[in-house]
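Hi R.,

Here's the chain you asked about this morning:
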Amino acid sequence: MITLRVNGVEYTSQRDMPLIDFLREELRLTSVKNGCGEGACGTCTVLVDGKKVKACISRLSKFDGKSITTVEGLTKRERDVYVYCFGQTGAVQCGFCIPGMVICAKALLDENLSPARQDVKKAIRGNICRCTGYQKIEDAILLAAEFFRDNRPIPAETYEGRVGMHIPRIDVEEKVLGTGLFVDDIKLPGMIYAKALRSAYPRAIVKKIDISRALEHPDAVKILTAKDVPFNKTGHLVPDWDVMIAEGDTTRTIGDAIVLASSKKRETLDEILSLVEVEYEPLKPLTDPVEAMREDAPKLHEKGNILSKQHLRRGDADKAIANAKYVVTKHYSTPMTDHAFMEPECAIAIPEPDGGLLLYTASQSVYDEQREIARMLKMPPEKVRCQTKLVGGGFGGKEDMSVQHHAALMAWATQRPVKVRFSRQESINIHTKRHAMEMDVTTACDENGRLLGMKAVLISDCGAYASLGGPVLQRACTHAAGPYNFQNVDITGICVYTNNPPGGAFRGFGVTQSCFAAEMNLNALAELVGISPWEIRYLNAVVPGDELPNGQIVTEDCAYRECLMAVKPAYMSSPYAGIAGAMKNSGLGVGVPDTGRCKLAVKDGKVHILTSAACMGQGIATVATEIVCTVTGLSPDNVIHERADTAVTPNSGTSTASRQTLFMGEATRRAASDLSAAIQSAGSLSELEGKTFYGEYTGVTDPMGSDKPNPISHIAYGYAAQVVVMDENKRVTKVVAAHDVGQVINPLSCEGQVEGGVLMGLGFALTENFIVEDGYVKSKYGTLGLIRATDAPPIETILIGKPQPDALACGAKGVGEISAIPTAPAAAHAAMRVDGVFRTSLPLTGTAYRK
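And here is the predicted structure, written out as tokens:
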């Protein structure tokens, strides 16, 4: 028998198990998160006799007689201080890592109430945060130290909640204390567990599937194959992704599901799957997009291996380049990378009495899930109700079906509640990645450095399935020439199916790749002309009234030159400073229907914000609350944000393309305007009990290839300039990021988005690489190259905006993606200024991070 104390209470256990299972499953202490299962991410950190321990890799028997503390065991004073300090500093985004960070903070502050920032960095070094860039978490811990050291009382703060002012995030308390529910925190009576057996080969014919031995396992409930699926396809835009591979069909990637098994016990799922017998005929995988485009290449999909071909042509690029004084042609390579969001994918599906399904999910759109699950099961969409719980990061990686459709399928087949949860390695093997791209780029300018023309060919590795491969390619092409004033462009993009893991949406959406190539070419041109890289950017930067390379007229809110001026002192401060610029759209654009929706309901004297806009950490609830408070004059105390639910919240589209702040924000502003008028007419909010106010905004744009002289490709653009400073060892010492975001809604949240994006951009530039060999994933969580706090440099954020009167969404433009885009070329430029090597591939080699 094992005896131990947890949060001051004595418990015993007759059986040994992982400590995390005892805490989460037996004691229901769900502040302890399972982010990786291999001791690398730190979300499961607890204190054992005052020392930090990773609960996911430790057995319960090791702690016999020990005392364990989780966030649930903190004193009221500690809880109050951490909630206040993490809220005041903007330290919380998705929240999945935060309880682990709080435990690390306690371990440090119990011994040292006057820590330096470097002490804090060392204290949280074992814990990964993918959202914040660490800086604000460090600020929170340093502030907490002051409160404990000086015995300061928690101030009784009041907040107006107006646009441009600070209010703590709406969800800060539940995320700091671990009381907010992520899907895996939920346990239901009678719930069973399901898991798919994945393909042993990236490309093989499935000759035979035998589930008979697996069905004999005492815990087996049901085992499904492709023939049990009403419609055996899924896919975000193109339904080309098999729910399961049928006998006689061919696998396309190692992530393909062969069977779906369910068990009464989560811990026996692997035993059951090991009894499934599959006979394969292995085939040689296609892993190179160029090879996959050959005429004699085997077809991976019925329509061939080219998913999408895009062509953007304006002016006469050939003539401009032929007549130019200076021409640079380079080949660039960028790798596949993993989103590495902190929360592994998890979904629960529950049969409803009316024959429908209720799902608890954590994705980037409940309506996308509803549509794809209903299509798979051939049932009306209204029979599939999807409710979001807290979402532990996304960055584009939670737009596709991963676990939701399998949970729904098994619940439909068994009529029992079903949980499907990916292990971290399953997540790494299966979910979409950033598209690897090979790019040939030619850029030309005159003798003074004025840009004249550009030609480019971009080849994108789509991987096994379409996902968002087409739109990602479009965005890479439409943004390839950057925020510069020249009109001769000829850009071709091709997205090619291979047997690699599928590519999909990823923060930056293709622009991170093409921006790296285009910005590096600018540096080479500047050297030929004899001007600085800063000068060539400022000389060619678009200003209001100019024409972007894609033909769109630059609007009055554009502040790219102001961004360049803001970072100029940082660039001039060091001989090892690198610079890059970028633009990024807000909204789907290019003629795709795009609507934001919001409903405001007055209930019990409060205004309830109802919108399906998914929050993966970017702060949707806080943005919507501040817009409502600004328009109506109400206090944040009178406003409640409801989580997305297809039965209650109107469809505001996917949280993608930096669109929700603008599209959902404008819909919210319109609904709030009607509410405000009604309050004035009625005399008070209480007189409007039971009434609802609806707002909707649709952005109208022109399709790619439009014959208009100046098509509107996107409703809005953000602009940015970043400077990365390195030392002589090519270690980053500082980043300065100036971002034109329009009107800032919440300053600390906006800064946090920039800081997190910059650190993700530094990972793309310096440390992260997703290793796939012959179609087999070789990467593990601990080898992804995620940057830890001790390697995270100081990041200075400069927020710039020229919001116009009567602008959409109070003038906000969004910042979620652009913050990660110019960082890699700025880092590559900095490295070149140290050693003179012009690098054309990522991650950069020969730095302090990669020899």
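One quick note: The CA atoms of residues 596 and 664 lie 5 Å apart.

Cheers,
M.
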